[in-house]
Design brief:
The complex is a heterodimer of chains A (450) and B (167). Chain A is mainly α and 450 residues long. Helices cover 77% and strands 0% of the residues of chain A. Chain B is an all-alpha fold and 167 residues long. Chain B contains 7 helices and no strands. The two termini of chain B are 18 Å apart. Classes of the chains: A mainly alpha (450), B mainly alpha (167).
């Protein structure tokens, strides 16, 4: 227990002097493992056991079949982007919502939600949507605080609405079904869109001049806008439906494993982008290159986290925490509240993936031993992570926005984000208090014979 | 020094191309596997093992490139302070050297595992590909990664200007 806490402290220090997370966690995890096995970090037998664990972890992780979803889903998001679908999604939501007061910001939120359904990263969603939505909102005289905030907040949906890279990493770290995690993200994601729409309404109710109404679009325009996004919708239903088992009937008998769903999604996105003339050989190469580099850094970090997690488990930190909770007779719900508090505090300073990698190995065994559902906890963690993306001082999505948009201060964006942040806290409370919101879809999926 | 950096930039193209080909193959193969299985009831039996191999190729061929670009996932919380103290090059140099050196042990271990697989004659299930090739590849590319990290670390001390705009 003491060794684990010291190890955790050293990782924090190393990470803060900007050592890449993979090396910080791998280094401490290896030495800690050797210490636990041999009684000292210089013990030869302990070191041998540790190196053997590290060697296996490196070779096995790189060849883990389940991990192939990571590059394939990243690939899908990037190809979709090349097909110009962000713009079309935005046009559709604008046609339906733009005429209301604050409507263009509402359309932005809705389009972010739609884009999240094909992209698994919050940062990518925010970066893409800001290029599309920001000029439009400026044209209609929207205040920068509202327009940037709606993109920063809307972008966070990227990691909740499937596919989601963060959910995949959670699933792999905890050996939880990725398919079920994806299903579980859908309803909280839709709730997220709904709550953000309310946040926009609240902002324009307080300050009507911050978000004037746009033009009204007739039904003809709406239908024709809708026609342009059919491909995206189809792709989403193919991928998610296949995972859910919706096509599992004769003669099709089509059910996807997460890897297959990701492969179909990537290929589908590739074909759509190709058919729209959005791809050349060199841009295809760029997409593949970006995917490979991103995936490699994710894999590296995962190897480090697993090495560290092996040490934490060997040192008995989870058991010690469970014993502590039992000894003090803390009610499970209070434990959850404490964990959420820790996440919100960590979220103020840590970037989402680092936070997940550092905390899940410690909290997950505790939470599941208290009888909570692993799928539910995954969604809770992701929602808290989403909140961290827009929490000052290190809300990463806010920084992305400032980077892409320019001439807006971080302060302005954070001020605009406040109602969205409060909406997020309400959503978190709802998910924690009413777990069925999360678990309904994955439970249905179980009933369909998975 | 500059020649070394330029050489690195040229050399990185080959592994990047290799990773791109592996990734594209993985995508097309997964797609074909699903179609063949559902429509013709004839799945690609070797798909799983090929997926594993292609993933290892993709990840480990670009690992040295990721390290050379300095694009490993890290926390930049204390950057303003280090910048202010003008210590960022010293810090990055030391961290990079340390990371490179600490890879020495895992490289050895992965190599030993690969050699053991060679002794046992381990092969993949359907295609009978000897698994030690993958182990060799992983060990070799980790070694290149270590080398890149150490060289980058040295450059931080002797010629930090050359490390700007690395991607």
């Amino acid at each position: 227990m003491t060794a684990a806490l010291i190890g955790f402290g050293i990782v924090l220090v190393l990470v803060l002097i900007r050592m890449p997370i993979v090396f910080a966690m791998g280094f401490v995890g290896t030495l800690g493992f050797a210490y636990e096995r041999g009684g000292s970090i210089f013990d030869e037998r302990g070191m041998k056991a540790a190196m053997s664990m590290v060697g296996r972890q490196i070779t096995d992780t790189a060849q883990d079949y389940g991990l192939s979803v990571v590059p394939l889903f990243i690939l899908m998001g990037l190809f979709v982007n090349k097909g110009g679908m962000a713009k079309e999604l935005y046009a559709v939501s604008n046609a339906f919502l733009g005429h209301m007061r604050g409507g263009i910001a509402m359309a932005t939120v809705a389009a972010c939600g739609g884009f999240s359904a094909i992209c698994g990263s919050s940062l990518a969603t925010a970066a893409t949507m800001s290029k599309v939505a920001m000029p439009e909102m400026r044209r209609y005289g929207y205040h920068d605080s509202l327009s940037t905030a709606s993109i920063a907040a809307g972008g966070t949906l990227g990691i909740l609405i499937p596919p989601s890279v963060i959910l995949v990493i959670y699933g792999l770290l905890t050996e939880t079904s990725i398919g079920k995690l994806f299903m579980a993200g859908i309803i909280p994601g839709i709730l997220g869109i709904f709550f953000y729409l309310l946040a926009v309404r609240w902002t324009v109710w307080r300050k009507p001049e911050s978000g004037p109404a746009g033009e009204k679009h007739g039904w003809g325009e709406r239908i024709s806008a809708l026609k342009s996004v059919w491909a995206v919708l189809l792709l989403f239903f193919l991928v998610i439906g296949g995972l859910y088992g919706a096509f599992d009937f004769a003669p099709l008998n089509l059910t996807f494993s997460p890897t297959e769903a990701a492969g179909m999604g990537a290929m589908g996105a590739f074909l759509i982008a190709l058919s729209r003339g959005g791809l050349t050989i060199s841009s295809t190469f760029e997409v593949l290159k970006e995917t490979a580099l991103t995936a490699a850094s994710l894999f590296a970090v995962l190897i480090g986290a697993q090495i560290f997690s092996n040490f934490i488990n060997l040192a008995g930190l989870p058991e010690a925490l469970i014993a502590m909770v039992t000894a003090y007779e803390v009610s499970p719900f209070v434990v959850i509240l404490m964990i959420l508090g820790i996440y919100i505090i960590l979220g103020c300073v840590f970037e989402s993936l680092s936070m997940l990698l550092l905390t899940v190995p410690i909290f997950f065994p505790l939470v599941t031993s208290l009888g909570y559902d692993p799928i539910w906890f995954g969604i809770v963690v992701v929602v808290v992570t989403e909140i961290s993306l827009i929490t000052p001082p290190v809300g990463l999505n806010v920084f992305i926005l400032r980077g892409v948009v320019g001439n807006v201060s971080t302060g302005t964006i954070f001020r605009g984000v406040t109602p969205f942040w409060i909406a997020d806290i309400f959503r978190l409370a709802l998910i924690v208090l009413v777990p069925i919101v999360v678990l309904y879809l994955p439970n249905q999926m179980g009933a369909m014979g998975h | 020094m500059k020649a070394l950096v330029d050489l690195g930039r040229t050399l990185q193209r080959a592994p990047v191309y290799l990773a791109c080909v592996a990734l594209f193959t993985l995508m097309v193969m997964t797609f074909c596997d699903v179609i063949l299985r559902s429509v013709f009831n004839a799945p690609i039996e070797a798909a799983t093992e090929l997926t594993r191999i292609l993933m290892a190729i993709m990840v480990f061929s670009v690992l040295p490139v990721v390290s050379g670009h300095g694009s490993h996932i890290s926390v930049d919380l204390t950057d303003p302070w280090f910048d202010y103290m003008r210590l960022h090059n010293v810090r990055d140099g030391l961290v990079s050297l340390a990371c490179g050196v600490m890879l020495w042990w895992p490289i050895q271990r992965v190599w030993i595992l690969a050699e053991r697989a060679r002794d046992y004659g381990d092969v993949t299930e359907y295609l009978g590909i000897p698994t030690f090739y993958i182990g060799w590849f992983i060990a070799a590319s980790t070694a290149v990664t270590a080398l890149v990290l150490i060289l980058t670390g040295i450059l931080y001390f002797v010629a930090p200007k050359l490390l700007e705009n690395r991607t």
